[in-house]
Design goal:
This protein is an alpha/beta fold. The protein is 32% helix and 16% strand. This is F-box domain-containing protein.
Length: 348
């Protein structure tokens, strides 16, 4: 026998033995893998053993509380819940309350708006339209292009906000039934040529309006319990406030043109009588030379049971005087700065 061939045969036998050993090792590893996989497949994650109703309730605590809007994407969006697993996606899509509040952007596809709001089923809705920004390089669509997307959902709208550079006549509320509307927030560019009456809104209780909106829209003012008006003059709001006799909260951002006006009304409370008012926030400078007397006269004339009094832009040296003057008011706060509304009726 050729010596070289004998060596190769011996080498081949050795390799076959090593292969057999490796195959036995591999078979043992595959068996262990199979056992481990079976154990994993048999394990039930606790969260997946919960009833669907409990998981859906957990989802509702994940998104902002209604009527605040969820973002279309990101950590607080219900869309995130649809990307975890098939079960969670099914539960999220079958939970209408996750989808009942949406901020509509003129720059987002209207198909996304329809998809989102359709998932809300027949529930009442909160619809907010986002403001246009001037720093975009591409022009934004006009507000009329949003109208077809909004019209099918307005009859179910509870909370509606639109803050756009637009004319009120462009907005679809002028031709829609709004039986569930509770809160209306309108900031517009120009008042319409004629008043637009929005009187068939039996559930409406609060409104936020800018000066153009107050010029252009007529609401059932006596129904309102909360009213906020921005950049408005006393002349503009007096007639409205005279009719809004059931207000519990009133926020006025007054505009005073001292150049055009010969007389500056130093005590703005002289113009108001609000018998149902429970909370008053006012700048000290708007109370005239005798602020405590101005508030006392206002409360006496209105006959209101004031529970909260906030004085802003105030002289802190007189803070104790306010507390002493109004012992029946549960909460009296005096601020050196013009603080934001401490308890806004909506955070949008």
């Amino acid at each position: 026998m050729v010596p070289e061939l004998a060596e190769e045969r011996a080498r081949l036998v050795e390799l076959e033995m090593q292969i057999s050993e490796a195959e036995r090792t591999l078979a043992a590893l595959r068996l262990q893998e199979s056992v481990a996989r079976a154990r994993l497949n048999a394990y039930k994650y606790p969260v997946l053993t919960l009833p669907d109703e409990i998981i859906a309730e957990m989802f509702l605590h994940f998104v902002p509380e209604y009527p605040k809007c969820s973002p279309a994407a990101g950590p607080r969006s219900p869309m995130r819940l649809t990307h975890i697993c098939r079960l969670w996606r099914e539960i999220a899509l079958a939970t209408p309350r996750l989808w009942r509040a949406m901020s509509l952007s003129l720059r987002s596809p209207f198909s996304l708006h329809n998809l989102w709001l359709n998932r809300a089923g027949s529930l009442p809705l909160a619809i907010y339209t986002t403001e246009l920004k001037s720093d975009y390089s591409e022009p934004a669509p006009d507000i009329p292009e949003l109208v077809p997307a909004l019209l099918p959902y307005l009859p179910r709208c509870e909370y509606l906000r639109c803050r756009h550079q637009m004319r009120l006549s462009d907005f679809p509320i002028v031709e829609s039934e709004l039986p569930f509307l509770r809160h209306l927030d309108l900031h517009i560019t120009d008042p319409p040529p004629r008043d637009i009456k929005l009187l068939d809104v039996p559930m409406l209780r609060s409104a936020v309006l800018d000066i153009c909106a107050t010029h252009g829209i007529v609401l059932p003012w006596t129904q309102l319990t909360t009213l906020s008006m921005h950049d408005i003059t006393l002349d503009n709001c007096e007639d409205i406030l005279r009719q809004a006799s059931n207000l519990l909260e009133c926020n006025l951002d007054l505009f005073v043109d001292e150049v055009a006006s010969d007389v500056y009304m130093t005590n703005v409370l002289d113009s108001f009588t609000l018998p149902a008012l429970s909370r008053l926030q006012i700048v000290e400078g708007d109370l005239g030379d005798y602020p405590i007397s101005a508030i006392t006269t206002f409360i006496s004339r209105s006959g209101c049971k004031l529970q909260q009094l906030w004085i802003t832009d105030a002289n802190l040296d007189t803070a104790r005087s306010y507390v002493a003057a109004f012992p029946s008011i549960e909460e009296v706060n005096v601020w050196e700065d013009n603080v934001p509304n401490p308890r806004p009726f909506h955070s949008l």
